[in-house]
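[Automated response] Your request has been received and processed.

Submitted sequence:
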Amino acid sequence: MVGLFVSCSAVSGAETYYVTVSGSDGDSGSETQPWRSLGKAAAAARAGDIVLVGAGVYNEVLKPSRSGTVDAWIEFAAKPGEVAVIDGTGVKLDSSNKGLIFFGGDISYIRVRAFEVRNANNDRSTSRDPIGVAVRDDAHHIEVIDCRIHSITTDSEDLTPKGVSIEGQAHDITIREGSVSMISTSESEGNAHAIAVYGERSRPIDAVRIEAVEMFELALGTSESLVFNGNVTNFTAVGNRIHDSNNIGIDVIGFEGVGPSGQDQARNGLIADNVVYNISTLKNKAYEAFSAAGIYVDGGRDLVIERNRVYNCDIGVELASENSNGVTRGVVVRDNLVWRNAIGGILLGGYDRRRGATEDCIIANNTFFENDTQGVALGEVNIRYRTNNNVFVNNIFNAGEQGYFVTLPKEFADSKENTFDGNGYFTSSRILGWEWQGKWASSWSAFKRISQQEAAGVFEDPQFESTPDKEIGLSLKSGSPMIDAGVAQSGAGDRVDVAGNSRLSGSAIDIGAFEFASSVQPVAGCALAITEVADRSARALSFVPGAADLDGVQLQFSTDGRTWSSIASYSANGWTLTEGIRSEATTLLIDSRPLGRVFNSLYLYLWKFVQV
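Generated structure:
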């Protein structure tokens, strides 16, 4: 693998140490005389040093004892091409070792890379939660990259297994790439998390980044897959894939008593470009009902939720609060695809008069497609108690067989000043339904009359390209009535749509999550196959142009699905290649830029042909 490690010569006096299962802690730690234990290496490593750990199983805790510096991080990593396993079998976590990988005190500037971390299984004999990676206290500038964390479990209701736990007043923490799986509690009222960020101190947990992590096969009891709770600020959850969990996918929480009074509210966060699916509490013994949202804000504030894809969950997106005094406020939900979730597309407000409120939120340019698959009459949008001053603009609401679009029942009539305008509605069902403060409308004209909403709204077939299981299936065909039909929004020109195209490409903004890009279109007939060579330092791209005229065609790439760059363009003279790309045949390009295992996720490493 190319480009993973800092050269020893980059930091004066820095060393590279080695650990293997056949080594000895009495040796020098060199490549020919490696150490045996992670503990020995952790005690010896200083600023700028690299510790490479060979293949095998290490039944111990990795606990760095010294900090790096801003210019000289300490790095612990599995040797390239080898599987180094930190295994908690027989390891009891306690007050001095709170995770199989543990960062405590004010430790800083440490990077851990490419380990397998497994089998933290504390039982009823201990009071310490089983945790794969723990970041506590004042730790800062910590990076955990490309680690595979799994099999963190308990059979005790009093313990909470976590793949990754970030607590105290830590800041500048990055968890990137890799995976967290098989995190579970067997107790019906127990709790577990794949990744949990809990701000409990007066100084907030700040600048936590959860990026490109896959989280799956999770049995969580009454808790959430990825959660930001309490005094947490300036966080991001970007490019993650969360699926097959028996409770909420992503949760931002306030007012649970986790943080100090007045600061007990996760805030100022970005949740973007995540794929969340197969999230349901139906078979969770704590619920046995449809109640889990793919993305849930429970008392959080000042958030942007954009360009996510949420499907086959109980609820697509929920903005609510479970606390009687808590308000979810200032959330922008935009440019997301939300489809075929069990009981609703987006739900807002308190469950009942005793809890929760949702205020001052904006829901803009999303595509909601055939939600409420269970036909429970919540529809694409459900408004409940204390849902006030929220704006719904330029969304597509394409209802399924039940035909319900917006439901605001009579018992929630205290919800006021919510506005709908510039939205597009459609269903192929013969049944059409809107409920506005208890009054039902079975036609578009009746809904507008009863609600006094949608002066600029439309009821027409949006003319999607295909079905939502395709990457751009819910994009708009040429001639769609949703193109250039949206209501103007301040700042729309500074953002991109769910596919990474400019949010303004015509005379006005489009309705829905996709902006029709008339000047850049995928080239019909071009197929692309990508393979990874054995040393994982390059990608081979073989393609079949088909019948398309390649003159003016570009091959583009993206590492995040938003920003695209040309790597090759075709003209009469053949392909012109960017740096890091070489051609070995007419239909074969080799990309040798080092991207490591990010490449393994096509969502994070995308290629397409476009005609410009």
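Summary generated for your ticket: Residues 1-10, 530-536, 595-605 have pLDDT under 50 and may be disordered. The chain has two helices and 53 strands.
If you did not submit this request, please reply to this message.
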